[in-house]
User: Which sequence fits this backbone?
């Protein structure tokens, strides 16, 4: 920088173990999932979300949920292979999403009991990027992507299918988002 301060491309890299700017490739790299990364701001995410909802009308929330489900499954599966235990995969995920700016996730009861995946778990998300990016116009929970992401993450980490329902949402006026994961019947 002209004033002699630190290179802005290297600032923060020591604080975030997942993302770094590669001087060699000149891109941001995600070391947790061994891929390229981009930064997305609220306006960008809001435009994508609102366009999907506008274009697909009633099917929009389902499409956004399914996108989250696919992403979550990959994250859960890859996290499971990187972590020593399945519980550690959940810890890795909660730290990863916090460092990614998605919010602070608190997970209850999402641990194996006697080698069996839990039937039900609650996930609270504080300061959710996805909920704060867009306010609900209906007053209903609207974090369709996170609902799918959490269901997919649990399925990828535990090899068992889960449904996820958002019961509280910042976008609907609550102080945090809350999701209830339940194992699908027969899984």
Assistant:
């Amino acid at each position: 920088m002209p004033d002699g301060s630190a290179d802005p491309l290297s600032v923060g890299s020591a604080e975030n173990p997942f993302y770094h700017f590669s001087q060699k490739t000149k891109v941001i790299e995600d070391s947790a999932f061994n891929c390229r990364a981009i930064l997305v701001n609220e306006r960008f995410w809001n435009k994508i979300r609102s366009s999907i909802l506008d274009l697909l009308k009633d099917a929009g929330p389902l499409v956004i949920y399914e996108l989250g489900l696919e992403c979550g499954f990959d994250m859960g599966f890859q996290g499971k292979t990187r972590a020593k235990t399945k519980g550690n995969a959940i810890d890795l995920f909660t730290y990863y999403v916090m460092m990614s700016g998605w919010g602070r996730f608190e997970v209850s009861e999402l641990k194996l009991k006697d080698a069996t995946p839990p039937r039900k778990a609650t996930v609270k998300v504080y300061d959710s990027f996805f909920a704060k990016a867009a306010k609900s116009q209906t007053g209903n929970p609207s974090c369709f992507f996170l609902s799918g992401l959490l269901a997919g993450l649990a399925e990828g980490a535990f090899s068992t299918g889960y449904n996820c329902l958002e019961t509280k949402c910042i976008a609907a006026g609550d102080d945090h988002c809350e999701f209830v994961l339940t194992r699908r019947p027969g899984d």
